[in-house]
Amino acid sequence: MTIQYGEDLNELIDTITRAVGANDLTTLATAIAGPPTSELVVVCERLTEHQRAVMYRLLPKQQALELFEALSPALQSDLVRGLQDAEVANVFSELDPDDRVWLLDELPAAVAPRLLRGLSERERQMTSELLGYPVHSIGRRMSPEYVSTHLGLTAAQTLMRVSARLDDAETVYTLPVLDDGRRVVGVVGLRDLLGADDEQLVDALMRTPQTIAATAKAEAAARRCAENGLLALPVVDSESRLVGILTIDDAIRILEQEESEDSARQGGVEPLRRPYLSTPILKLVRSRVIWLLVLAIGATLTVQVLSVFESTLEQATVLALFVPLLIGTGGNTGNQAATTVTRALALDDVRPSDLVRVLTRELRVGSALGVLLGAIGFTIAGLVYDPRIGLTIGLTLVAVCTVAATIGGIMPLVARAIRVDPAVFSNPFITTFVDATGLIIYFLIARAILQI
């Protein structure tokens, strides 16, 4: 969620920074007494780890717990490192089991046993069960705190079950209906229960359920929940027995994280998983340097191509003027295709089995784009320089756009087929590949037309 803020919030951040620096706890306590939790979340995202921990300690207990729950898991992890053991145990015990797992995934593995020991037996068991599911599965993100009902119960009996669990249930708006074997046979909404006669059976009110296996990918489950407009999606084991639920707010949280990771990787950086201003400089450097090294090594292909065709450039130096245009157009065309297909993969619009269909479509799209751009290039270059130069540029644009769109379209599908993140495999590598390939095409066409 994006919070709009202006001078008032900036002044609050400055006040907190100065108060922490001067160890003026009275001024700090006064400054943070008024703002709502939503504004304090934004403040936390712009403070250092030490400043955040000092501010947190001065908040009233209830507001401190609300603030901790509202922070991203990465910032929660930072805050845990800045608090005393007793404070950590207190906030950790107040979290929902699924939120605890989010936090534990950010913390060093050695910390988890110590935090789990401080929980009650019931809370520890629920949290441990979630931790037992594979990383990135929806079982690790679901909530085990749900309200269910059973076949044969009346609307009044079900509402009594809801009332008894109001304080600890994740949601009460959608209730799974179970049979005697705890298998999900339907779902019923709270609205339907409230509008029904007290003695009406749940059997008559329930509708066909949508469920997801606990071992399914978290992103796939979240997208299914969001796309179908479900307030809650029952999560089941291999025998269709209910083990938890995924609520719409948790689904949106998962999708936001996945979108952030995909956007970062398409740009050639590792995802930060935390607000930019609260990310240490060293982490920013680490998130970028590996990709820069990989792409720099890949760019040597372009240098090698230029060295091979050095004699061609010497005989027609005008060709060098168009090199940035051609490789830039090719890279952009490939990235457009890769981004479109990667998005389609995320939405399950296409699958690796659709490779031939995607290849055919991108071949047609690329050639159409190439013809349009090539006609413009032929006209301008032909008028300014020479018709043969114009023809070289025009034909190269047709070929480069066709190749770039085709490669860009199938790369994400190939990545998915070999179980690599399509976002990682696509844009940075496509740019490097298309640069080298585009230059080879360019100089081969130039040699043929200019006879050099």
From TrEMBL:
SMART domains: CBS, MgtE_N. The chain crosses the membrane at residues 289-309, 365-385, 397-418, 430-450. The keyword Cell membrane applies. It is found in: Cell membrane; Membrane. It is a multi-pass membrane protein. Pfam families: CBS, MgtE, MgtE_N. Residues 142-204, 205-261 form the CBS domain. InterPro entries: CBS_dom, CBS_dom_sf, Mg_transptr_MgtE_intracell_dom, MgtE_N_sf, MgtE_transporter, SLC41_membr_dom, SLC41_membr_dom_sf. Belongs to the SLC41A transporter family. This is Magnesium transporter MgtE. It comes from Occultella gossypii. The gene is mgtE.
